[in-house]
């Protein structure tokens, strides 16, 4: 882009100085060649520092341009600074230091050849050190950003590997536990049978949570999540999901018995259990779950009666790693938001007096599928 703009300005310069048309056409042709070289040459095959050759050629063309304009550097000086800035964004300091020689020649030689007065020539004493200093500052910041990006990439690779390994490693022993529980359940009776049923439900839930960990990885890598949506009774869905909540928890539900929703059952359970667990852990009972149709959307609401959440914090509650408490990882509500978005809905928090309501919307079943 830099060389393309320089070539265009060379053509425009012909309109103001037609007597220099030949020289300016030569400058424009050189800029065009460098533009095409920058766009189409396979620089990645030549090494990371190979594009620096464009910089060397660029300084030569800038010198030619200054000479073509009769030694007037007012137009080419800014391009010299921009060329140095581009170099600082992509190359190390030793290349910037090496560029001082061709940059100085590109600035001084045309001034000397065109017989400029000493005062104009001496401007290089101020201009060039300033350009080099700016370039070194840009290089320093760019280097820090590159290092930070590489460090974040390594952290992300470690996190993805950990999540994938954890999800897969949990499945094998969990399957064994579930089989043992099934065998024991066949002969159990009374309270023991009920306890084994609860244990089997929880192992099944842990298995789904392991799948959810893999979902996090899929959401991060592709931004999409495949859903198995079907029409379900909202009352049955909520009842089944709340069966995983401990029996002594103060959780109640108020669901329209005629409401049919179009959701992925497993993902819906994940959403509701995340919200109820958060309400019990960070809010104050009682926790009330409601599910109603509101025009074109189905609206799930999980409300606690705690101290509430400040208005300034509510917009970022559903962000990744947004948890601030010592026991909070900050992924639960982020997963909820991603699952809501996968359904075509939204997740947000609303103030209540007292407490806060976590609201999830879904497209109405009549308008979906």
From TrEMBL:
Alphabetical list of InterPro entries matching this protein: HATPase_C_sf (IPR036890), HATPase_dom (IPR003594), His_kinase_dom (IPR005467), HisK_dim/P_dom (IPR003661), HisK_dim/P_sf (IPR036097), Sig_transdc_His_kin-like_C (IPR004358)
Keyword hit for Phosphoprotein: yes
| Chief subcellular location | membrane
Q: Quote the subcellular location field of this record.
A: Cell membrane
**Record-annotated Histidine kinase domain positions:** 165-366
| GO MF annotation list | phosphorelay sensor kinase activity
Is Nucleus one of the keywords? no
Q: Which Gene3D superfamilies match?
A: 1.10.287.130, Histidine kinase-like ATPase, C-terminal domain
Residue ranges crossing the lipid bilayer per the database entry: 53-82, 94-113, 119-138
Q: Which SUPFAM superfamilies match?
A: ATPase domain of HSP90 chaperone/DNA topoisomerase II/histidine kinase (SSF55874), Homodimeric domain of signal transducing histidine kinase (SSF47384)
> GO CC terms on record?
plasma membrane
Catalysed reaction equations from the record = ATP + protein L-histidine = ADP + protein N-phospho-L-histidine
Q: What is its EC number?
A: 2.7.13.3
**CDD domains registered for this protein in UniProt:** HATPase, HisKA
Q: What are the alphabetically sorted keywords of the record?
A: Kinase, Membrane, Phosphoprotein, Transferase, Transmembrane, Transmembrane helix, Two-component regulatory system
- What is the name of the protein in this document? histidine kinase
Source species: Actinoplanes utahensis
